[in-house]
Structures are given as structure tokens and as C-alpha cells.
What does this fold into?
Amino acid sequence: MTSYKAQKYICMLPVLCALLAVRAAEAGDFKRFELQPFAGYSVSGNVPLVDDDGVDHGTVHVDDSYHLGASFTVYLNELDAVEGFWQRQFTEGRLPDEIVTPVSAGGVTRFDLKIDQVHMNFLHHYEIREDPRARPYVMAGLGVTAFHASRQGQNFSKAHFSFSVGGGMKYFLTSHIGLRGEARWSPSLLAASDGSYWCEIGGEGAKCAIHLKTTWQDQLDFTAGLLFRF
It folds into this structure.
């Protein structure tokens, strides 16, 4: 009887070893970090200039344009992750005549504008049993958006609180390389101090007595790029 039991245990060893090997392979396939350089296109909303009395001073128009950036993701478990995110949009703005100096009024009112977005994002992924290489996800983030304006040799910068919500898809081509695409809504909270900021861009002599209401500048971002896992 003892010999029979020993034979039974010996026969079970290959099965146990196979199961342990599968578990080890699964554990070894878990990648905790991801790095993604990306490029994309931003659909930018205008900046409304409405004072506390409800007087409309026009809008600062922001052109839709391309952006570049990168993200670094740390997985907390198989499905949840946090990431540091940076994006720079290269665009142009156009001032309303309402806040442009009399000398410039009717002339060139455009200025160069770079928009930096630095966020901490939180991601939750979903498994697709039919194709485990595909991972859809939803995301939300908090951080700051900085506007860097340049006009006639003068540079002006201003940072604001912003957040983002969106979602996308990751597709793993190998255990170390994948593709990622994302759509994201990223509004920035503009405070009353923006009146003087946009007036400064207009130049000396502009109407700077504009005390703005709290408002939002909307932005819709579409990004895509390679994904490196390790």
C-alpha cells in the first residue's frame, strides 16, 4: 500500500511541476512599468473674457494643433496603475481687439503659444478573454496646465489647475512592446488673474482692468504611440 501511494505521488509530481511552471510564467509575464512617448492632436477651446459685471470682452482664440509628450506608468496590480504624464501643445493664439493696444488694433493680433500639461493619472484596465493582448482602460488625472505665450520678443507664462478624464486601448505586440491610443477631455480652470495675463500679451497700454469670472478652457486630446514594458 505504501508503495502504491508513493507511486501515485510520484506520478502527480509532473502535473504539479507543470502547474508551478505555468504560474511562474504568468508571474514572470507581469510587467510593472511602462514608458510611452506619444504624439497627437489637440482640439482647443477658446478662452472667454467675461468680467464680473457680465460684460463680454471677446475671446482669446486658441488654434487646434499637434502635441508631443511622454508618460511613465507604474502598475499597482494587474489592472490598476498610476502614471506621470507630460504633454506639450505647439499652437498659436489670437487676441480680441477689445484688449489689444490702440497701436496694434486692427493689425497683427496673433501670438505663439505653447501649452504644457503635467498630470498624475490613475488608470483602470479591463481584461478581454478573447484576446488577452488587448487592454481597454479608463483614466482620470489631476495636475496643472501652463500657458507660455510669446509676442514681439516678450514672453509670458501662467499656470492653472486642470484635470482630465478619458479612456483608450493598449495592445501588446510582444511582452515588452505594445501600442496605445487614447482620447481625453482636459479642461483648465482659469481664475480672475487671467485678465492681466492676456492684457500683458496685448502689450503696454492694453485695457487691463478686466476682472474675469472663474471659467474653463476646454480641450480634447487624441494621442497614440508605442509602449515599452519592463
In short: Residues 1-30 form one domain.
